[in-house]
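G., before I forget:
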Amino acid sequence: MSDLAELSMTEAADAFARGEVKAEALVRACLARIDAHNPKLNVTIRLDREAALDAASAADHARAIGINAGKLGGVPMMHKDMYYRRGKVSTCGSKIRKDFVADKTATVLLKLDAAGAIDMGTLNMAEFAQNPTGHNAHYGHCHNPWNLDYCTGGSSSGSGAGVAGRLFYAALGSDTGGSIRLPASICGVTGLKATQTRVSRHGVMPLSFSADNVGPLVRTAKDAARFLAITAGQDPNDATSAPEPVPDYEAALTGDIRGMRIAVCSTWFLDGADAPVLAAFEAALQVLKDRGATVDYVAAPSMPAIATYVSVISRVEGAAIHANWMREYPQDYAIHLNARLYGGYAIPGHYYVESLARRGPLLKQFVAETLTGYDLVATPAVKTRVPTLAETDIDENPANWARFMAVSANTRPFNYLGLPTISIPCGFDDRGLPVGLQLAGRPFAESTVLKAADAYQRATDWHRRSPLM
Amino acid sequence: MEPDLVPPTTEAIRRWSGVECPNAAARLGLADMAGLIADMEKLRGTMVFEDEPASFELALRQCKEAGK
């Protein structure tokens, strides 16, 4: 194979399983890309180079003697630095936890280990996963591989930039307001947030426990399907994880979406959208129609309430879990973060309870308004063009606040609703930065979401394009 | 000109939570809370007496695709 780094996660895993490539070759291909490009992108926090090579050697030996390596056998990955592994430091992108050594291992890491994935280390991220752009005052900002002056999206900044830059095949992100889908959209990769409760959060840094989600950033919908099948399911260590059975998501990827019904909300998600984003979004809808789906415009009158309540929940929960450090070490947070957390202490408790109590009724209302008679809702993942790092740097200029928050306007509502949602690349804006198509389905309808995303990727090559770094 | 709500709110946060206002950006953020207050005012009367947080997990199950 000429360029191993260009393989998708499933292509790399399947090539290893067939004996066409060695795990050591995959790891060395990734390390070469990291050595060449990480100095510009600032993607990694901890690189376990020798451990990765040792794991690859063990995987190659096991395969040589006929041991089944698992569905991710031999595939190098790196993960957002908030997934705990016993005995290892998880900085959470912060100064406060720069020396924090975990005493447990995240369930999702154990599942990836069991599937044969090779963990090469940890990735840069927004401090405590608390911003949508990827700025980090402590470890340096992550840079977009399509243009280093632009933000990566956050909070899973290293995950998005690293997968886009072909530095590894997959990465865990986390998503509380869009932190998987935003870097996926802005860096031009595929990012999946499953249904709330679908994937265990045991051993994962909390941000807002009502809305936190675990999920992958990868190259393709097929990658996301395999990744989710391995990581989803009930976990006795996470009382909130759902007992729903985990289907074979890859089996649903037939490419046939004839008769699939897609709703587009005529307001809210398109309000104020930039023209290049709208053009890419409408072209993407046409691709889905060409493959046999129908697209209709529907109303979404519950959106203002949803947007208000999600803001209350994430602020209050974030403020509560950071209260001790906000009293003792406020200077150890970046300016934009302690400023954001501070507002959470001003919100009355009854607003918080109301926001949680209205979540079920509003989910039912949204489904009735927009998904009755439809399989999916489609929106642009980010309705504005990708901003530069400077345009969204609040630490340098607090007046950038509105531009900063606008980045996540289209992703946050789906965290309140808990719906499975994916972002896939669907083009580029007029400055050459990626645009993402967001598809959301009913609760636990990940198969439908992935099927549509896969069908779209069979007809397009946006997800195959590599940044010229 | 700083909105009227900022000084009493910083004092309330200090008393209730023991957290000091960390910087000017935080004061700006508090000033923006007027927008959230207005948004919550618009939603008054929508919550009914029996609404409770656990209804969310139930709604997730009830809103699944038909046949799943």
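The mean pLDDT of chain B is 92. Helices of chain B lie at 6-17, 24-31, 33-42, 55-62.

More on Monday.
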